[in-house]
């Protein structure tokens, strides 16, 4: 049975079907292993997109008889500070082309896309599903398309400090460059690992 993937900008979704219908679709998203991902799509994605803070792309899988909201990813443009000491000499030279270097701090200031959210829908009533690696590939291709138009060869993510997530992004060519405290957390060990990918093509 043929299956098709459709990606829809959340702003286009609201234009085509209205905000209420869009939110009804978003409310079906479930991710019990990461409630932050679930909360974002249900309660923040619409407003973030409206203010152009971050744009979410909804991913649907379809076959001849049904369609399912199987996941989403969110992109934003951010400035990030990267310690030169955390990068290889080769990567430092590459990053230098797209950044400003602060000699006093030994850090690169880089403006680049952030994959701010990436989530699979684990709703048990879904007739279809998608692999996390496929969602990531879509997000990376979207970044490549944008950078083809405006320039740039980098993207980064921030993920929870969990071995499975680290391995997942490492397998896609991301390299860890720093950690930061999770916003709003009082637990010193509750940190986000920052990882960078440089596109060689």
Mean pLDDT: 94
The total beta strand count reads: 8
Helix content: 25-40%
- C-alpha Rg (nearest Å): 18 Å
Low-confidence stretches: none
Please state the overall shape, judged from the principal axes of the Cα atoms.
globular
CATH class group? Alpha Beta
Oligomer: single chain
CATH superfamily: Gcn5-related N-acetyltransferase (GNAT)
Structural class: alpha+beta
How many domains, as an integer?
1
The largest sheet is:
8 strands, mixed
- What is the terminal separation in angstroms? 34 Å
The CATH topology is given as Aminopeptidase
Figure out the total of helices.
7
| Fraction of residues in β-strands | 35-45%
Helix-strand sequence: EHHHHEEHEEHEHEE
User: What CATH architecture label applies?
Assistant: 3-Layer(aba) Sandwich
Topology of this structure?
Blueprint: E1 4-9, H1 10-17, H2 19-26, H3 35-43, H4 45-50, E2 55-62, E3 67-83, H5 89-96, E4 99-102, E5 107-120, H6 132-150, E6 154-160, H7 163-171, E7 175-181, E8 191-198
Parallel strand pairs: 5-6
Antiparallel strand pairs: 1-2, 2-3, 3-5, 4-5, 6-8, 7-8
Helix pairs in contact: 1-2
Question: What is the compact description of this entry?
Answer:
The protein has helices at 10-17, 19-26, 35-43, 45-50, 89-96, 132-150, 163-171; strands at residues 4-9, 55-62, 67-83, 99-102, 107-120, 154-160, 175-181, 191-198.
């Amino acid at each position: 049975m043929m299956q098709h993937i459709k990606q829809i900008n959340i702003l286009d979704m609201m234009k085509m079907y209205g905000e209420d219908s869009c939110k009804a679709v978003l409310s079906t998203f479930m991710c019990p292993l990461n409630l932050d991902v679930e909360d974002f799509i249900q309660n923040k994605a619409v407003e973030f997109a409206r203010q152009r803070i971050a744009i979410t792309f909804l991913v649907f899988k379809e076959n001849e008889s049904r369609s399912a909201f199987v996941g989403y990813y969110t992109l934003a443009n951010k400035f990030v500070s990267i310690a030169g000491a955390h990068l290889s000499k080769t990567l430092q030279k590459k990053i230098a082309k797209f950044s400003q270097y602060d000699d006093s701090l030994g850090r690169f200031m880089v403006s680049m896309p952030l994959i701010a959210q990436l989530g699979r829908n684990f709703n048990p009533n879904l007739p279809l599903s998608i692999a996390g690696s496929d969602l990531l590939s879509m997000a990376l291709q979207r970044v490549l398309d944008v950078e083809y138009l405006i320039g740039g060869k980098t993207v980064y993510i921030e993920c929870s400090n969990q071995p499975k997530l680290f391995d997942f992004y490492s397998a896609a060519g991301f390299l860890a460059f720093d950690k930061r405290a999770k916003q709003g957390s009082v637990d010193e060990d509750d940190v986000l690992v920052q990882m960078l990918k440089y596109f060689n093509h």
